Amino acid sequence: MTDPGRAGLRRAPSRYLWFTLRFDRLSARALPRGRAAAVAGAAAAVGLVLAPFVLFTAVWALVVGVTRWPEDVLPSPSAVARAFGEVFAKGILTVYAGETIRRIVLAAVTGVAIGIAAGFVMGLNDWIAALLNPPLRFFQSLSGIAWLPLFLIWFGFSDKTIIVAVWYTLVFPVAFNTMLGVRTVPRLYRYAVLTLGGTWRQIVFQVLLPGAIPYIVGGVRLGIAYGWRALIAAEIVVGSGGLGYLIFKAETFHLTARIIAGMTAIGVLWYLTDYFLLRPLEEATIERWGLVYR
Amino acid sequence: MRAKISVERIVHEYFNPSTWQRVRALDGLSLDVPDGEFVCLVGPSGCGKSTLLYLIAGLTRPTGGRILVDGREVVRPGRDRGMVFQEFAILPWRTVEGNIGHGLEIAQIPRPAKEETVRRYVALMGLSGFERKYPHELSGGMRQRVAVARTLAADPEVVLMDEPFASLDAQTRNVMQEELVRIAQHERKTIVFVTHSVDEAIILGDRVVVLTHRPGRVKASLPIEIPRERRRWDVLGAEERFVRYRQEILRMIREEFDAQERAAEAVRA
Question: Are A191 and B77 within 8 A, CB to CB?
Answer without folding.
Answer: yes
